[in-house]
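FAQ

Q: What does a record look like?
A: Structure on top, sequence underneath. For example:
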């Protein structure tokens, strides 16, 4: 198939074309982006400063923070620029690059969430063998596999997308270059791309989801077998936070990508990636780390060294 692409740039309309709404959205997403950026950078600093946090759980959290920084930076800065400018153009190369990195970080996040579920499974269900199941070598291999598979998955989609032709319409009713809206604009047959989206991306997304599901089945059974009520409540609380993020992240991804192209609605679905691509990276530091007593202890020591004397409330 010869690539007969005639469109050299696209126009990103964003979440709203109303000028007043754009001003509000600019302020809102600027705050969200700064919170996500500062929160994840803070997590990386805290983990690097305290050797007590140099364990598998925080190693994967550090990887997740790097992914979340890249995830939000791929889309939010361009969206903010578009809200302040009348020029909402993005080049064809820039559009495909944005799509590549967004899909890459999304796939890596899915895989890391699966690895983190396995980490919790090993810690709760096999505490005596935890250091063997998640030795430094195993952790490094799991993290490397998540990054490699995520990048490879995105390369496949980007390569197939580059074969499509975009002939006339170049207006994307979205705040970034994503697969479904590009399918809608293409004047080529997208059936192969859709099949690959279901099969290849399905493996990257649903594979970790199955790991999470199986892990939590064993975790719940183990928790129910605990003797102390306090231990069960604490474990269930930790699981509920993780499952909330997984539900938001996977629910919106499945709804957005894993359905026929004919049912896609730009007006209805262009806000869906905000949940898993912007809000989730902002919430991850809060849910996974900033509400953790170990992290709070390190933060308190750092602040006290600087003479701030800031006290962090302890969780019961």
């Amino acid at each position: 198939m010869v690539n007969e692409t005639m469109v050299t740039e696209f126009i990103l309309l964003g979440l709203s074309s109303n000028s007043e709404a754009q001003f509000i959205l600019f302020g809102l997403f600027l705050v969200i982006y700064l919170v996500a950026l500062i929160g994840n950078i803070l997590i990386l600093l805290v983990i690097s400063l305290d050797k007590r946090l140099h364990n598998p759980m925080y190693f994967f959290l550090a990887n997740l923070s790097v992914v979340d920084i890249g995830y939000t930076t791929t889309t939010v800065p361009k969206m903010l620029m578009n809200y302040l400018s009348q020029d909402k153009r993005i080049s064809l190369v820039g559009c495909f690059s944005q799509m590549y990195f967004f899909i890459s970080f999304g796939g890596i996040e899915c895989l890391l969430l699966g690895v983190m579920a396995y980490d919790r499974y090993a810690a709760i269900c096999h505490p005596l063998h935890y250091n063997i199941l998640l030795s430094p070598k195993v952790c490094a291999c799991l993290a490397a596999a998540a990054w490699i598979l995520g990048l490879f998955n995105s390369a496949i989609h980007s390569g197939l997308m580059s074969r499509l032709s975009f002939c006339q319409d170049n207006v994307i009713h979205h705040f970034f270059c994503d697969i479904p809206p590009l399918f809608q604009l293409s004047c080529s047959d997208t059936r192969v791309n859709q099949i690959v989206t279901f099969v290849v991306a399905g493996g990257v997304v649903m594979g970790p989801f199955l790991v999470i599901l199986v892990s939590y089945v064993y975790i719940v059974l183990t928790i129910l077998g605990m003797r102390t009520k306090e231990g069960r409540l604490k474990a269930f609380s930790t699981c509920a936070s993780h499952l909330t993020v997984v539900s938001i992240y996977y629910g919106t991804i499945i709804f957005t990508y894993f359905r026929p192209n004919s049912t896609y609605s730009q007006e209805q679905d262009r806000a869906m990636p905000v949940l898993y691509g912007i809000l989730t990276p902002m919430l991850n530091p809060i849910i996974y780390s900033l509400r953790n007593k170990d992290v709070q202890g390190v933060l308190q020591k750092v602040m006290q060294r600087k003479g701030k004397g800031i006290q962090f409330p302890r969780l019961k």
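Q: Is there anything notable about this one?
A: The longest strand covers residues 9-12.
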